[in-house]
Specification:
The complex is a heterodimer.
Chain A lengths: L3 H11 L4 E5 L4 E2 H16 L7 E4 L5 H12 L3 E4 L6 H11 L3 E4 L1 H4 L8 E4 H4 L6 H10 L5 E8 L5 E7 H15 L6 E4 L7 H10 L4 E4 L8 H10 L4 E4 L1 H9 L13 E4 L6 H10 L4 E6 L9 E4 L14 E2 L3 E6 L12 E7 L5 E2 L3 H7 E3 L9 E11 L5 E6 L4 E3 L2 E3 L1 H9 L6 E7 L4 E7 L4 H9 L10 E4 L13 H8 L2
Parallel strand pairs in A: 1-10, 3-4, 3-5, 5-6, 9-10, 9-11, 11-12, 12-13, 25-26
Antiparallel strand pairs in A: 1-2, 7-8, 8-18, 13-14, 14-15, 16-17, 17-20, 19-20, 20-21, 22-23, 24-25
Chain B lengths: L1 H10 L19 H15 L16 H13 L1
Helix pairs in contact in B: 1-2
The chains are: A alpha/beta, B mainly alpha.
Chain lengths: 499, 75
């Protein structure tokens, strides 16, 4: 069967002594990772669970990665929990997931919310032995349609929603990643995103299926840009896949004028719109590096569209979302269900093998988002409605226009907050910004950080957008809040300025 | 020093800033709070905090922050 495990084992057999996982927590070879994962897998098997959920309550670490693979060796699917999120959120994920086992360590067991599941400790599992025969017999019963992981996003009602990804979806996705980007044994990822966030699938498995190295960057380093650059150089990181806000931290401090990441040859970004201001800053300092904009929701494993930056962009422009990945067709439909014309706005739909199977224990939400392809009725074919607004341009590239549910209706106009944000970001003295809408007071609010005064911001915006898109209120913050994934925290902003 | 403790309290209430000596190592100040703090200090003390000052040692305690501010005010 095709799975990440097979791809990982092939890499481990070719490059046994290469470093698989590295960082301040130590350096671990492919052999060490495979052996530890098998020990953990054996211990999980002995609990008699198969095709069941296993929660992992560990910080981003070698033990966490070995546990993820261990869960797969045992034929189960995992959910990585955020050890730093409020215990109420962890508890509500555990309630939905209802895992057979929870994997944690002595240290983290103390902060784990109470659960009925069996608790397994990595400290003891790592001292056991691997039962190869047992693991082989488990593998012979697995299929590529089995679940690999459940990844929880916050649902609109606040109840966590678990997207379910199969081995088939993830290995198909990683095959595309390798065909397109050809990561190899020399690839060293400096990873920023948490292991409970879909972006981590690309750098973690992009590295582990190629004999490359996954460097766990110290989270603290993102507060101290020079420390971050020092780490990138110390571990000879040559590939980044970060959210734009994380790349923006270094622009905000003008960190690249002080030190440069000396080995970085490719930078990928996804998760939110990349402000051209940041891209241009990085390109100015690292002109020989390649830049890629990746786009996709958790429900298409990680990515469904991609774009290699191949020209200069001005700050008023948006970077295209690009073209569909192989085995993952994307198309834009209008509200009345026909294919949008070139340049016409519509909702992005995705079909192909990267798709999630649906949401855990949410038949209604699954049915609402995973639907029969509206373009053909002759045979069953599930497509995913992304809720993203897009248009396909004359150049053949898809262009992101915003979220269907964040579209503002103001003075009779439909407005995309991202359009105002893009305009604001091109103003000197605005380093980061977000637009939110106060429905009760019918007011567009621009929240920004930077030296620009309210008046300068207002004057600047008026030259860039039509009157009806000009914010009615400006709020300046020393710094915009970021959520656990490192993206601008819009929910927090709404709480601060509207509620 | 008292002024700095007051600023710290306004950024992150509920921590005994007079006592804590490992604000960064113990994760009591997030990256966002450090940026907020730096911006506030620049404004209140009319100083410019350049990037080389943004290192863990300068933010581990109220005393460390205060020492950094004193040094920058003398410059």
């Amino acid at each position: 069967m095709d799975s990440i495990l097979n791809l990982f084992e092939t890499a481990a057999a070719r490059f046994p002594d290469n470093t698989a996982v590295s960082g301040e927590g130590g350096e671990y070879s492919y052999i060490e990772l495979a052996d530890t994962a098998k020990m953990i897998g054996t211990a999980i098997c002995r609990h008699g669970c198969f095709r069941s959920a296993a929660a992992i309550f560990l910080p981003k670490s070698f033990a966490c990665i070995a546990s993820m693979l261990g869960v797969l060796y045992a034929g189960n699917y995992y959910t990585v929990l955020d050890t730093e999120s409020p215990s109420s959120r962890v508890r509500s994920i555990l309630e939905v997931l209802d895992p057979a086992v929870v994997i944690t360590s002595e240290e983290y067991r103390e902060v784990l919310p109470e659960t009925a599941a069996e608790i397994l400790l990595t400290d003891t599992m790592q001292e056991g032995t691997a039962d190869e025969a047992l693991l082989a017999s488990v593998r012979s019963r697995m299929t590529d349609a089995d679940l690999m992981y459940a990844l929880f996003t916050s649902g609109s009602t606040g109840k966590p929603k678990g997207a379910l990804l199969t081995h088939r979806a993830v290995s198909s996705y990683i095959n595309w990643v390798q065909q397109t980007f050809a990561f190899d044994a020399e690839t060293v990822f400096g990873s920023q995103t948490p292991l409970y966030f879909s972006m981590s699938v690309t750098d973690l498995f992009g590295a582990l299926t190629a004999g490359g190295t996954y460097v766990i960057l110290d989270k603290k380093a993102f507060s101290f840009p020079l420390m971050l650059l020092e780490q990138l150089n110390k571990y000879r990181v040559n590939t980044l896949y970060w959210v734009p806000s994380a790349l923006g931290i270094l622009c905000g401090w003008d960190a690249l004028s002080y030190a440069k990441p000396e080995y970085v040859t490719r930078i990928f970004f996804a998760g939110e719109s990349m402000p051209v201001k940041y891209l241009n800053y990085w390109r100015k300092h690292l002109p020989d590096t390649e830049y890629y904009n990746l786009f996709g929701p958790t429900e298409t494993t990680d990515i469904c569209l991609w774009y290699k930056v191949d020209r200069a962009f001005s700050e008023e422009e948006a970077i295209p979302a690009g073209i569909p990945c192989a085995n993952c067709d994307s198309f834009v439909l209008t509200e009345d269900g026909r294919r949008a014309e070139t340049g016409e706005c519509g909702e992005l739909y995705v079909r192909g093998s990267f798709l999630a199977s649906g949401y855990l224990k949410e038949p209604e939400k699954t049915a609402a988002s995973f639907v029969q392809n509206p373009l053909q009725k002759d045979y069953p074919e599930t497509v995913y409605r992304t809720g993203d607004l897009m248009k396909v341009g004359e150049d053949g590239n898809f262009h992101y226009l915003g979220r269907k549910d964040s579209q503002i209706k103001h003075m009779g106009y439909r407005i995309e907050p991202s359009e105002i944000e893009r305009a604001a970001m091109s103003i000197d003295g605005i380093n980061m910004c977000a637009v939110i809408y106060d429905n009760i007071r019918d007011t567009i609010i621009l929240i920004y950080q930077g030296d620009a005064g309210e008046k300068e911001a207002d004057t600047g915006i008026r030259t860039l957008v039509p009157e009806y898109m000009v914010p009615g209120r400006y709020e300046k913050l020393p710094v915009l809040p970021l959520n656990a994934n490192g993206k601008t925290d819009r929910k927090a902003l709404k709480k601060m300025f509207i509620d | 020093m008292e002024e700095i403790i007051a600023i710290l309290n306004s950024i992150h209430p509920g921590v005994d800033f007079a006592k804590e000596q490992h604000l960064i190592d113990d994760g009591l100040l997030s990256s966002m709070e450090i940026m907020m703090l730096a911006a506030r200090l620049e404004k209140e003390f009319d100083i410019k905090i350049r990037l080389p000052e943004i290192r863990p040692e300068n933010f581990q305690s109220a005393a460390a922050v205060s020492a950094m501010v004193d040094r920058l005010m003398d410059d």
